[in-house]
Amino acid sequence: MGKDSNENIIELKNVKKIYRMGKERIVAVDDVSFTIKRGEFCCLYGASGSGKSTLLNLMAGIEKVTSGQIIVKGKNINRMSEKNLALFRQNTLGFVFQSYNLMNTMTALENVELPLIFKHIPTRKRRRMAKEMLINVGLGKRLKHKPKEMSGGQQQRVGIARAFVSKPEIVFADEPTGNLDSKTSREIMDLIKKMAKAYNQTIVMVTHDRSLAEYADRIIHILDGRIEGIEILDKPDEHQTQDNEAGILQAFDTDPDSLPVAEGELITGTS
């Protein structure tokens, strides 16, 4: 798989989304065009009601454009059948939600296994992959806990583990820290950034919080459904620590039941 950081992985061309309510026309997204490169962390930033979440839903194929084109990995997603679009989302995309969207009757381990079940990964392998990912996000001792037995920050860590476990090329995050306090929010954002960097994934995040937007490589300012401006953030030299990033991939418990797989095999996404 190409890892060229100059390759456009998402491209929007003159995208419009209009909702009709009776005789009223609401223009949620108005003639928006931009590209996102492979491995980029891109933030859609704007106030509530600016159209940024609608834009994310359009890019993820959750909603259909009224006009224009959205090209993801060279494919026009608006021309896909529902079945092909569902398969494309399953194989290419991961999602982190503001409200965690965990299954309350399932343990943390079972929640993280879900996307792997849909990919028909054998039971032992998917359990190992889910366990490793939960260890990576700091929840190695909470594998059997259900959502109601965890804090909001812990639940969101489960959500991140689930989003990343099948190693999707693109992760969409819609206000991923919206229900968390500021300290936990920073921890969650550090985690998302490190996970994406470790696996060369593309992140598209929606937020109204400027301090969170600054985790991105590029901020696209959205106002009234249009692009108000694009800001490229100057980053200090390759973040303080590649050690920190490596730490994401290593933290394995020492008990024999949590045997690590070889690096690079951690999440293969294939059966």
Give a written overview of the molecule:
With 271 residues, this protein is α/β, with parallel strands linked by helices. The chain has one domain (40-52, 82-258): P-loop containing nucleotide triphosphate hydrolases (Rossmann fold, 3-Layer(aba) Sandwich). Helix content is 32%, strand content 26%. It is built from eight helices and ten strands. The strands form two sheets. Strands 6-7-8-3-9-10 form a six-stranded mixed β-sheet.
Record the strand order, biggest sheet: 6-7-8-3-9-10
How many domains, as an integer? 1
The number of helices is 8
| Second CATH tier, the architecture | 3-Layer(aba) Sandwich
- Choose one word for the global shape: globular
Q: Give me the CATH fold name.
A: Rossmann fold
Total beta strand runs: 10
**Helices and strands, in N-to-C order?**
EEEHEEHEHHHEHEHEEH
- The CATH first-level class comes to Alpha Beta
- The first-to-last residue Cα distance is 17 Å
Global structural class: alpha/beta
Major sheet, described briefly? 6 strands, mixed
What's the short version?
The chain has 271 residues and is α/β, with parallel strands linked by helices.
Keywords:
271 residues, alpha/beta, Rossmann fold, 6-stranded mixed beta sheet, 4-stranded antiparallel beta sheet
SSE layout and pairing:
Layout: E1 8-21, E2 24-37, E3 41-45, H1 52-59, E4 67-72, E5 75-76, H2 82-92, E6 93-97, H3 108-118, H4 123-136, H5 152-164, E7 170-174, H6 182-198, E8 202-207, H7 210-213, E9 218-223, E10 226-232, H8 242-250
Helix pairs in contact: 3-4, 3-5, 4-5, 5-6, 6-8
